[in-house]
## 1
Amino acid sequence: MKESEIVSVISRKLVPYILIFGLYLISYGHLSPGGGFQGGVVLASGIILLALARGTDSAQKLFPERNLRIVEAKAFFLFLFMGIGGLVAGGYFLQNFLPLGKAGEVPSAGFIFFLNLIIGLKVSAGISLICFYLLKGE
């Protein structure tokens, strides 16, 4: 595939904004439409755009495959521990065990904010890894 200078420059300028928007979706998903899955997909799309425009080797220098695997595994176990936390608190799996605040305030959703962060990391790392594996087979 022939590398285009225009695509390379535009992708370098656009990727930080895509990553920031993904983090925004993850962090405000408990107050507005969005959340962990949607934000994770947007984060992964920024990484994929970088890999498509600059090549997988260049993208893996910024986002190493080994680190993505570690993030995905740790996010899975954090999700599992959050679910078990509900059981330990005397409820059911993934029951909220943190105090609730007033509606519309940032700490109002209990542990949903943390759950969105964990899911966002898991989804972004997983989709990025899948695309890295697929792009290596060109």
Note: The two ends are 9 Å apart (CA to CA).
## 2
Amino acid sequence: VDTPGIKLTDQMDVGNLGSEKRHHYRTTGETKIITGNYWYDGELNNVLFKHPAISDNGRSVRGSSEFVVKIDQANEGVRLRCRTDKENNRQLAKVYVDGKLITERPWYTVDYEKTFRGIRWYDTSFEIPAKYTAGKKKIRVKLDHVSSENGSIDQYYFWVYSYLPTAQQEQKR
């Protein structure tokens, strides 16, 4: 494909008070600040090749978190991507957009192999169907913790992608 079918429309750095304020981030239930200094799995994991760890602050949320993000008004759905810690296996959350529960599926972060040598970062994605996002410039997302290995959802960083309309992609060719 000559033109992208998806574009980054927003980013939120959880644990960064300025970013949280801009995105109207709030939580309910027990919440604590967490810090990770880890690697992603792959070539630059400090095992095969020496590479500095990625340091990030985030939040561990036992209740729910809510935030507002920008999306492309002409979107055909949205992808949320979240940096999380592999040590907290089986994170399960209900996802709401503008107060409506996404009924197609919850956000489930699958089981991971045992972590070692600080290789703990993992990016997990959730697809929001267009029927929840069509025609909107922004959405309020709520993640309601259901279960996980340590009893909370770990959130460090969110990337928000909007799927571009097929017609828009065709026009750019």
Note: The chain is about 10% helix and 50% strand.
